[in-house]
Amino acid sequence: MRTITVMNQKGGVGKTTTAVNLAAGLAARGRQVCLIDLDPQGHASMHLGVEPSGSTPTIYQVFTGEKTLAEVRQLVAPNLWVAPANTELAAIELELVDVPDRELILRGAMQQFVQTQPMDYIILDCPPGLSELSDGVIAMSEALRVFAVMVPAVSGGSEGVYLKAELSPVTTAVNVAGAVAAVGVALLAFAICSSAAGRSRSRTK
Predict the structure, then answer these.
(1) Whether the model pTM is above 0.85
(2) Of 9, 24, 55, 65, which shows the fewest CB atoms inside 10 Å?
């Protein structure tokens, strides 16, 4: 089994789009894939047709110990499952603040899950920023696979385009998990400042 985490500190750079399409593509190739939605916005779940409400079990219940991953996952397409999330997950950091080893809860849930539910891939869609949720992902595996979403950007004082990667979570993962492999980058957003654009137009003329 291979675990791939899609994470970046910045929001709106395509993490969920990347995670959902990666999971769907692997499933279409016949791989058994489970996508775990760790963003309280629940967009990965909604992309796959799941909008948890009422009594629908979510990843929140996994963190509180009420449910297992096997109990909350839903089959959404051949070979593809999702462990959905909703806004309840936003409260989990406060609820677990006094729980010892809270960053290891997801690791324990994952270990239990793979023993009974063999998967080829588990894809984790993380929320933006650094939080207890991302800490749980980082601590989940001793050999974490990280798919780092990269954002092309232009600095106001630079003469050219450079790639800016928000990789602080990966650095943290090295310290916590001990081994991190960056398995891919996705160039999903482009930002350019007006001064750099103006210089570029002048050189073109």
Answers:
(1) no
(2) 55
